[in-house]
């Protein structure tokens, strides 16, 4: 059992606080640090909130596997929504 009750985005925020330059996600030759992943996901989350995304809102996402897809998933979760892969 995993004892931590925090959400994935709370765990990423905690990692940003301790090691923002550490690699968070690598896809092919591209890598995002925890700090950059968090910054980009926060930016997207704010845009989604402005468009009405929040708790109990489903957000469809149709993307090829990429760093942007990870940013999208995290941004949706940070906005309080739930993602639906299309």
Descriptive account of the structure:
This protein is an alpha+beta fold. The chain has one domain (8-85): 3-Layer(aba) Sandwich (Rossmann fold), CATH 3.40.50. The chain has helices at 8-18, 34-50, 67-78, and strands spanning 23-27, 30-33, 58-61, 82-85. Helix 2 (34-50) crosses helix 3.
How do you describe this structure in short?
The chain has 86 residues and is an alpha+beta fold. The chain has helices at residues 8-18, 34-50, 67-78, and strands at 23-27, 30-33, 58-61, 82-85.
Poorly predicted tracts of residues: none
The overall number of domains is: 1
Distance between the termini: 31 Å
* Mean pLDDT, all residues: 95
What is the radius of gyration computed over CA atoms, rounded to a whole number of angstroms? 13 Å
Number of helices: 3
Helix-strand category = alpha+beta
Main β-sheet: number of strands, strand sense, barrel status?
2 strands, antiparallel
Within the largest sheet, what's the order of strands? Answer: 1-2
CATH topology: the name is: Rossmann fold
By CATH, the architecture is named 3-Layer(aba) Sandwich
3D shape: globular
Write the element-wise H/E pattern from the N-terminal end onward. Answer: HEEHEHE
β-strand number:
4
> In what range is the share of β-strand residues?
15-25%
CATH C-level category: Alpha Beta
Roughly what percent helix? 40-55%
């Amino acid at each position: 059992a995993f004892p931590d009750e925090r959400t994935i985005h709370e765990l990423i925020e905690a990692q940003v606080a301790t090691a923002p330059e550490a690699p968070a996600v690598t896809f092919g030759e591209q890598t995002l640090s925890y700090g950059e992943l968090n910054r980009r996901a926060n930016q997207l989350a704010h845009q989604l909130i402005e468009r009405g995304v929040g708790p109990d809102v489903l957000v469809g996402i149709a993307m090829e596997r990429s760093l942007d897809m990870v940013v999208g998933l995290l941004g949706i979760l940070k906005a309080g929504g739930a993602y639906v892969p299309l």
